[in-house]
């Protein structure tokens, strides 16, 4: 499939949204003495990260849906790609840990060492883990997608939306507003 500039723009906007969200969530941006407008601005940034993550999943799904796909061949290719991605994340996780420790930004603790060594099971980089799982499930999701009619797709969409909305309450995101 050839490149589409609109989709590339969506990727860039998604990255900016994710960065704004992370900045508002994890930086030491003190808005308490800047008034209600500044606080409201940071609260607007936070959900943008979720939108950006959704956009990345949708872009992956858009380019992955194929009617005639051999699940075994696709899975072999995706396993190799996923392994390379995991190696890259592991490398940068260790590198960031060592650099922040060397610069005395973070003190090493048992918890921090475990997070750096096992970023996939410690939920340190939850999106990479979820993305790899999605990529590995694509051949099977393709089979389901081909079998569903329009109403089936709508039912699946609303079910997933319901689960996601419920996760907002479970994870405390809605209670923080």
Quick structural overview:
This protein is an all-alpha fold and 177 residues long. It has helices at 5-26, 36-64, 71-102, 110-117, 126-147, 150-170. It folds into two domains: 1-64; 69-171, no CATH class.
Characteristic terms for this protein:
single chain; 177 residues; mainly alpha; 2 domains; disordered C terminus
Helical percent range?
Answer: over 70%
Number of strands: 0
Mean pLDDT: 79
Distance between the termini: 41 Å
- H/E series: HHHHHH
Structural class: mainly alpha
Radius of gyration: 19 Å
* Share in β-strands: under 5%
Low-confidence stretches: 173-177
Main sheet makeup: none
Shape: globular
Helical run tally = 6
Number of domains: 2
Transmembrane segments: 9-27, 47-65, 86-105, 125-145, 152-169
Domain Acyltransferase: 5-170
Keywords: Membrane, Transmembrane, Transmembrane helix
GO molecular function: acyltransferase activity, transferring groups other than amino-acyl groups
């Amino acid at each position: 499939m050839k490149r589409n500039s609109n989709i590339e723009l969506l990727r860039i906007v998604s990255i900016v949204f994710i960065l704004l969200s992370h900045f508002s969530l994890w930086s030491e941006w003190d808005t308490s003495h800047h008034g209600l407008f500044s606080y409201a601005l940071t609260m607007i940034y936070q959900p943008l990260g979720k939108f950006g993550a959704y956009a990345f999943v949708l872009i992956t799904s858009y380019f992955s849906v194929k009617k005639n796909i051999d699940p075994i061949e696709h899975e072999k290719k995706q396993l190799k790609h996923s392994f390379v991605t995991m190696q890259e994340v592991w490398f940068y996780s260790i590198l960031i840990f060592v650099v922040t420790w060397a610069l005395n930004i973070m003190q090493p603790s048992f918890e921090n060492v475990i997070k750096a060594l096992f970023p996939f099971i410690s939920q340190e980089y939850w999106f990479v883990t979820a993305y790899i799982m999605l990529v590995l499930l694509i051949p099977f999701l393709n089979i389901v997608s081909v079998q569903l009619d329009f109403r089936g797709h709508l039912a699946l969409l609303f079910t997933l939306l319901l689960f996601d909305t419920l996760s907002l309450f479970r994870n405390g995101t809605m209670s923080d507003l």
